[in-house]
Amino acid sequence: MSKPFNFFLISNYSLTTQIVIINLSTAILALFFLIIFNFFLLSSNEYLENQKRIINSQLNEIANYLNKNAIKRILTFDDSCNSVSEEQNREEARTGCKENDLLDKNYEDKPLQLDPTYTQQYIYSNFLNSELTVKVFADDWTKFADTNDFYVGEEEIVVMDINSEITDNDKESLNFYQVYKNIYFHIYNLTQKYFNEQKLNKLKNDNITVMETIKTKKLTSYIFKDQDKIFKAVFASPILKDEKVYGVVLIIAPLIYDNIDTANQSILLTNFFLFFISIMFFLSLLFSKSIVAPIKLLSQITQLERDKSSDNKIDIKYPKRKDEIGALSYDIKSMSDDLKKRINEIEEFASDVSHELKNPISSLSSSSELLIQNKITQNSKNLLIRNMIKDIERMNILISDISNYTLTQVEIDEEVFEKFNVIDFLSNFIKSLPYENIEIEFRSNNTSAYIVANKNKLAQVFYNIIDNSFSYSPEKSKILLNIMLEDENIIFHIVDQGIGIPLDFREKIFDRFYTDRSKDKNKHTGLGLSISRKIIDSFKGSINLIENNYETYQGACFEIKLPLKG
Hints:
About 2% of the residues have low confidence. The protein folds into 3 domains: 241 residues, PAS domain (Beta-Lactamase, 2-Layer Sandwich), CATH 3.30.450; 72 residues, Helix Hairpins (Orthogonal Bundle); 147 residues, Heat Shock Protein 90. The protein is rod-shaped, with a radius of gyration of 57 Å. It is built from 14 helices and 14 strands. A 5-stranded antiparallel β-sheet has the order 4-3-7-6-5, with helices on both faces. A 5-stranded mixed β-sheet has the order 9-11-12-14-13. Helices cover 51% and strands 15% of the residues. The protein is of the alpha+beta class. A hairpin with a 2-residue loop joins strand 11 and strand 12.
């Protein structure tokens, strides 16, 4: 990736910074969805529509009631009974009229109309103290009732705000969440008001509304803004009977924006968001301490292990955990131990090589000085020359075995493992050995057993042990290779009929350059068994000298144990 984009790679930052970046990204994403949710909550708010449905229901109720009860033929007095001549006084004129003449003689012929008295009684008795403004107009636009223009008298009305009685102590007693909730609701409702007002742009007056309702004979509604710049809704319904309009009912209602239900939904989601973000950051802090601190400790330990100038006596404590960091700690500790072991082996190996080479070099140096001085007899010269040849051969063998030993160490680290049938492999391997004077007996109760190893290195191990057994065994003797399966391991016993090895030397014989041979000592450097153990260790197995329990084979008994692979 090009360098300009490296800045955006999260892996370029520390683990703590990475955790902070991830948390901030998660918080921003959650905040985005919170805003989207609130936006749809505010946009799809049906609270105003619910208000309209309630007002329409009341409007229909008033119109239906007036339709059934207030449209009637209104009784009137006869004008002839009210006329008074100059010769009559008013009392005489009244008593001169018959009682039946007090009513209109053509009562049945009077047209239906909206009774103003009945309408006023109904409106003022039911809606005078309501928040709604109710107006009723006749079909000629005459106003019959208006709850805003009705005055009950000149009595003084005292309006008290019961909230003003709340003392300062009561305000201080409000807890933090209540204050937070009140502020949140206030902001939410202001936002809700803004959203709703974007939809309210129709302006009408009473006359236009009444005229349009009479004309259309249908319910009409409009929104207008009063002198205080407050939006109000006007709902008008015709008072119909037999498809004729006798009047119009008008309801003017202030629009209420405060919606407790949606505000509660919003604050609950916001509270969950704040709680979630707080918990996430808190857990991230714990996670940071739990992850970053041990990794830093492992880094410091690695520097201490690498620092050669540090005191080797420092007790380094690796983190012990059961998670991946614990596994990493164990692996680093194992790698450190292996490196230390390898360094110690190299130091010991260098010391052993130096010791093994010093003897023939010293012998060669002494012999060469004697030959240069030329003060010895010819027989002594011949003996010195023969000894020098042996020392040279010994050094050649040492150098060759040392080279093989170091090469084997490298090959063990780089060898390729494969799964194979070790019984078939060893059966063919035994047949290929070039021993003529010694018989090798092959025993196995199984025809197949699979292991994972390197074939060449395993063949080298068996060759080294069998070659040692051959060198210690008399002619015409036998060497036994017995194969057994035990649980999840396969066990090999290599037993000869030689003089045997005391069990007190069971570990000594695996040391480098160790040999107790009395014959052909110069031809063996004592590295074979040491190399064999290292190879078997790389296969996760073991090789040991054990007690011999075979009756016909009383020599040394070597046991190799390797894990089976199903």
